[in-house]
Amino acid sequence: MPTNEERADHGEAAIEALGTELDSYDNEANLTDTLTNLMHWAASFSIKPLDFDKALRLAVVHFNAEVEPDDIEQAAQASRR
């Protein structure tokens, strides 16, 4: 099972996949663009589009189950370095 640090690395890799669109000064914009691209991907299934909102709600449940309050603070501190 991956650690939360490894999960964060996977998220960063997904954002970095944007390539030249990546804004190194605006991580919220990078996250928004990545989520928007995933929404387009989910909607692209012509026979049965994926339910992005349902997947996002489930992702929140998984995230909450995987982190401890201290993990969130440590991640925030690491991102400020």
Would you write up a description of this structure?
This protein is mainly α and 81 residues long. The protein has one domain. Helices cover 69% and strands 0% of the residues. The protein has four helices and no strands. The longest helix is centred in the middle third of the chain and has 17 residues, at 27-43. The chain is globular, with a radius of gyration of 14 Å. The chain starts with a helix and ends with a helix. The model has no long low-confidence stretch (mean pLDDT 82).
The radius of gyration is 14 Å
Mean residue pLDDT:
82
- The overall strand count is 0
- Beta-strand content: under 5%
Q: Distance N terminus to C terminus? A: 27 Å
* Count of folded domains: 1
- What ranges have pLDDT less than 50 throughout 5 or more consecutive residues? none
**H-E string:** HHHH
Helix content: 55-70%
3D shape: globular
**Number of helical regions:** 4
Biggest sheet character: none
Derived from helix and strand composition plus strand pairing, the structural class reads mainly alpha
Short description:
69% of the residues lie in helices and 0% in strands. With 81 residues, it is mainly alpha-helical.
Keywords for this entry:
single chain; 81 residues; mainly alpha; 4 helices; globular
